[in-house]
Prior knowledge:
The complex is a heterodimer.
Chain A: H1 2-12, E1 19-23, E2 41-42, E3 54-55, E4 60-62, H2 66-78, E5 82-88, H3 96-109, E6 121-127, H4 144-148, E7 156-159, H5 164-176, E8 181-185, H6 197-206, E9 208-210, E10 224-229, H7 231-247, E11 253-258, H8 276-283, E12 289-293, H9 298-304, E13 313-316, H10 327-333, H11 338-348, H12 357-377, H13 382-385
Helix pairs in contact in A: 5-6, 7-11, 11-12
Chain B: H1 9-31, H2 58-75, E1 78-83, H3 89-98, H4 101-105, H5 113-122, H6 150-158, E2 164-171, H7 178-183, E3 197-204, H8 220-229, E4 233-238, H9 242-270, E5 281-286, E6 296-297, E7 300-301, H10 320-331, H11 335-338, H12 347-350
Parallel strand pairs in B: 1-2, 2-3, 3-5, 4-5
Antiparallel strand pairs in B: 6-7
Amino acid sequence: MQGAFLRDVMTLNMDGRNFRIFGPDETASNRWNHVFEVTDRMSVAEILKTDENVSPDGRIMEMLSEHQMQGWLEGYLLTGRHGFFNCYEAFIHIVDSMFNQHAKWLKTTRHIPWRRPLASLNYLLSSHVWRQDHNGFSHQDPGFIDHVVNKKAEVIRVYLPPDANTLLSVTDHCLRSRHYVNVIIAGKQPALQYLTMDEAVKHCTSGIGIWEWASNDRGGDPDVVMACCGDVPTLETLAAVKLLRQHVPGLRIRVINVVDLMKLQPQSEHPHGLSDPDFDTLFTPDKPIVFAFHGYPWLIHRLTYRRTNHKNLHVRGYKEEGTTTTPFDMVVLNDLDRFHLVGDVIDRVPKLGSAMAYVKQAIRDKLIEHKEYIRKHGDDMPENREWKWSD
Amino acid sequence: MAAKGPLSPELLRKMDAYWRAANYLSVGQIYLYDNALLKEPLTTRHIKPRLLGHFGTTVGLNLIYVHLNRVIKERDLSVIYIAGPGHGGPGLVANAYLEGTYSEVYPNVSPDEHGMKRLFTQFSFPGGIPSHVAPETPGSIHEGGELGYALSHAYGAAFDNPDLLVACVVGDGEAETGPTATSWHSNKFLNPVHDGAVLPILHLNGYKIAGPTVLARISHEELDQLFRGYGYTPHVVEGDDPETVHQLLAGTLDTVLDEIKRIQTDARTNGFDWTKRPRWPMIILRTPKGWTGPKEVDGKPVEGTWRSHQVPLSDLVEKPGHVKLLEQWMKSYRPEELFDERGRLRPELAELAPTGERRMSANPLRCRAPSSAT
């Protein structure tokens, strides 16, 4: 979907010659194939008959050096043009310090009146930590955003769209923006679609919001807030909500999805940050929050430590467990799967108590079944693999 | 015997003077708080209490600048200058000041004695400007703080800018980094039909902060093979006698710019054919670190060694002899020949610089607004 969008951006700017795509070698593997309908990989070296989509006039810059991609893109942006960088999430760390230098440049130039704003530096990190079942542990590291949020709030933005329509909306916004570093994290695997395009635009413009269609607490306080940020955590959260509906019918659940990570920071620290009253209304001042996050869990604590309800915030995320295994097992290894999330809710909602022992036993059994199944069949159980939200 | 080369004696004299003016202003920025034109005998009260800056690379950057100015004027080129050794900030600031851009952008740093005093005081000083080719420097798109990215920035700037020449100085320290190693390959991604040109200038002054550099300690043959292997045609300019180096550099610049023009004209007339991928020219410039600075301090050699990396003379309060050395050093540039009584650059030198947007410090690309994406 995003590939088709970028194809059209490329086409519309073909005459202007002011837009290029940069990436080590991942334009195809990140499923941006659509751009090859209108341009090629650029090379002025030898081109063989067996090569596909390589030409001296191509506008897709690929060389297996993240340094080179970052450096070229910066030079291109610094002289008034536009671009997009796609990269493995784990390996974008290679240019951590180049990002630092560019962010410093943006921060300083923002306050120099004779310098005009630059087009933003846009990253798409799409081969991400939760979809390395083929590559394994060495390819898993969601820590680039931990690094990015160190930089001045006025120049950095981080987006984790949960589905294709939100990804399109975020991409559109980032390409139009000026003088930021935008980091977009979204998986390349075909994923579920939750929002219509209109809903997606509204959700991305707000950056954070209640998903009412998945919640059942309207008209009163929730018993628990289930928050999610990132495509895979969003899927697991929704699956956990379904399990809770089934096993704990009276439980009032509020589902919150975060697209714009910086919404979590206080308003005083980031221009996108929610005000404290808004944050308290959304996350409640005193109810348990189970937060399923794409990256390292402490980043969420770092962003929210001053919020009223921080003491009730329980974050699941990547805790540095991985190997070559199944996609669902990857989340299980990190306790981010739907079954662990159900357990987390049971453990934290005071009124649930010992009546829940049967539910806990059922989810434990599910995890044991999962392990046995994948070791025998080499793939996830159909009920986990093919799960979809249904009303 | 006069050195041979394309510069007439008159032009050679003027270009050397312009270079000395940039060097004088560079040293002044590093050291002086007051007495900008050295009208009074130099004393410690004219000197900054904390000396923060880098002299070692600066003279080479200034040399390249004045020579680029000549070819910009003669050939009406659009050029931007990327200083990989960004710690040579005083040099780029000095040149932006000499060609007038600095005072246009910062009117309080006026082109006169008063402005020169401000130019000197503000450098690496609280409330002033940073020591590197920072965003505050007109003409800069590259601070050169963390080393390694000059050449990839240069190529990024050249893509889709067919009329632009990016002169990119790569220091021999920076040349040891991984990102620089990979960036030499950018020439396989530059299409002479619709991209501009990059002229890499590898500046070998032999040392980093305290140790020797790799590329300065391999044979000339090995160095030549390295860059031929990367697909370039290296042109070596080497020496420590200013007149000789001026003539050599001027002749070499004429040669490489003719070659760039030939490559572009051929591709733009006949189309691009990868079987005839051009070998773009590059320059290897080998001049002493801290060139024109103090030869020896406290009995130890300084010019041409790592000791000139930052401030060749320090401890000026404790060592009155060093104040004398600094004064002799600055006067060796003969400021009275370069600036008039009121501190203005003499007209015969000012006219060496390009004008308007042809000045490297005022090239509109440095801060062109992004075109709106549709």
